[in-house]
Amino acid sequence: MGLAASQARFLQLTSRKSDLEFSGQNINQRRLALTYRAEAISTQLYEKQVALYNSAELGDSPLIDITTPEIEALLRQIDRFHTMDRQLEIELKNVDTQQQAVQTEIDAVNKVIDKNIDMTFKTFA
User: Fold this and answer.
1) How many Å apart are CA 99 and CA 91, to the nearest integer?
2) Cβ pair 54, 66 in contact under 8 A
3) What is the structure's pLDDT at 65?
4) Whole-angstrom Cα distance, residue 61 to residue 105?
5) 26, 54, 99, 125: which could form a disulfide with 20 (CB 3.0–4.6 Å)?
6) At 119, which CATH number?
7) What residues make up the domain containing 12?
8) Helix or strand or coil: residue 63?
9) For residues 71 and 67, what is the distance between their CA atoms, to the nearest angstrom?
10) Is 70 helix (H, G, I), strand (E, B) or coil?
11) Selection from 16, 2, 9, 18 nearest residue 108 by Cα
């Protein structure tokens, strides 16, 4: 591969690596937003359970299972958030794997460029 072709390949790989980094940042941002939403739902769930617990007649056992359709809906929503987070985590791992492959190829192209430069200077020196 000639020096110009190697340089063009290097620029293409650098651009691809930047795109992958941006994709990774977007995925992390989506995961963060999902975390904030899950936290808000968890707070609602906690408040509802405390209210139900305080309003229930406990009798002898303070450990009772208090569920309502509203609480079950909140629990299902949290489960959906966990599923979405796992999917985003898988996407992020794929992006990281692609980024490592691109970095490996960038290193290889850099070696080719360095060899071309060395050969050019030996020829003209």
Assistant:
1) 12
2) no
3) 60
4) 64
5) 99
6) 1.20.120
7) 3-124
8) coil
9) 6
10) helix
11) 9
With a CB cutoff of 8 Å and minimum separation 6, the contacts of 78 are 38, 41, 42, 45
pLDDT tens-digit profile of 53-92?
777 665 555 555 667 788 889 999 999 999 999 999 999 9
- CB crowding 80-99: b at 16 or more within 10 Å, else e: ebeeeeeebeebbeebeebb
| pLDDT tens readout for residues 6-36 | 899 999 999 999 999 999 999 999 999 999 9
pLDDT tens figures, 86-123: 999 999 999 999 999 999 999 999 999 898 888 877 77
CA-wise closest residue to 93 among 19, 20, 44, 41: 20
Structure tokens belonging to residue 98: 């692609």
Helix axes 69-124, 3-55, angle to 10 degrees: 160
Residue with tokens 């769930």: 45
**Number of structural domains, the chain?**
1
Residue pair 99/59 in contact by the 8 Å Cβ criterion: no
Taking alpha carbons only, the member of 11, 18, 24 closest to residue 96 is: 24
